[in-house]
């Protein structure tokens, strides 16, 4: 049951609402997308269809470290009614941070997903609880490391042999000397048969002049990263594309406000865009991928160039 095809035409209408209060931040997003396909099953059957995909996302950040949210999506086919399906997810974030600038943090996310189909495809119905934990530490401004582990259990209501338990772990180290001098660091140490082993890194930084950033350059970087797949929407189903497009609209709107002489409005838009890109789950990011951190840096540089407070 695949709905992508050789020839598709997509139309998307999205609505995004963000509200901030002293005690909590709220987000609500509605998205209505249509997809026309000339070959629904990609098997040369030439069976066309028009798919309606309404989706919704709700989220609230509360009690300083906590976030709670919901995403849902419906796929309704006009000619193949038996392909009707709906997806739902609820999630809970815990994200305490510490340090002078909150550079050290722990992220714990618990989520529950469900996918339901019509009777002809009931073997695809599933329930998936998942748990993700991350530890991010920055002992030096030029040294940052991240450890993460995730686990998910796929429970198929009508196809028990397909049940699975997936688990994975990942480690990352970022070493970015910023001054023209020797920097050294130790990643960790261990003891084996009475002998201590340590893993060290060292290197010289290079001083460079800070580049000048414009809104047009940020949008060009945004579009190029989307095209090459290094920047994607952060979400499930079509809500991911809706969030990505909403972020681009926020950046583009800042240029219009700045051209109209509304610097405060432009800075407010860019600040909101940065908060949806900075990797902090409060509020949830709109994009992910290897280019997301570079986009956040570009937005900070742009705000600095514009003189935003």
The percentage helix is 10-25%
Identify the overall geometry: globular
Tell how many strands the DSSP assignment holds: 14
Q: C-alpha Rg, in Å?
A: 23 Å
**Which series of helices and strands comes N to C?**
EEEEEEEEEEEEHEHHEH
**Subunit organisation of the chains:** single chain
What portion of the residues fall into strands of 2 or more residues? over 45%
Sheet of most strands? 10 strands, antiparallel
In total, the number of domains comes to 4
Average pLDDT, rounded to a whole number, is: 81
**Count of alpha and pi helical runs:** 4
Low-pLDDT runs of 5+ residues are 1-8
Structural class: alpha+beta
Distance between the termini: 51 Å
Describe the structure.
The structure is a single chain. This protein has 309 residues and is an alpha+beta fold. It folds into four domains: 1-83, no CATH class; 95-173; 177-207, no CATH class; 215-306, no CATH class. Helices cover 20% and strands 47% of the residues. The protein has four helices and 14 strands. The protein has helices at residues 215-227, 239-259, 263-275, 292-306, and strands at residues 8-20, 24-37, 49-62, 66-77, 85-94, 97-98, 104-117, 126-140, 143-156, 164-175, 182-192, 195-204, 232-233, 287-288. The strands form three sheets. Strands 1, 2, 3, 4, 5, 6, 7, 8, 9 and 10 form a ten-stranded antiparallel beta sheet that branches. α1 (215-227) runs antiparallel to α2 (239-259), α2 runs antiparallel to α3 and α3 (263-275) runs antiparallel to α4. The longest helix is centred in the last third of the chain and has 21 residues, at 239-259. The radius of gyration is 23 Å and the shape is globular. The relative contact order is 0.11. Mean pLDDT is 81; it is low at 1-8.
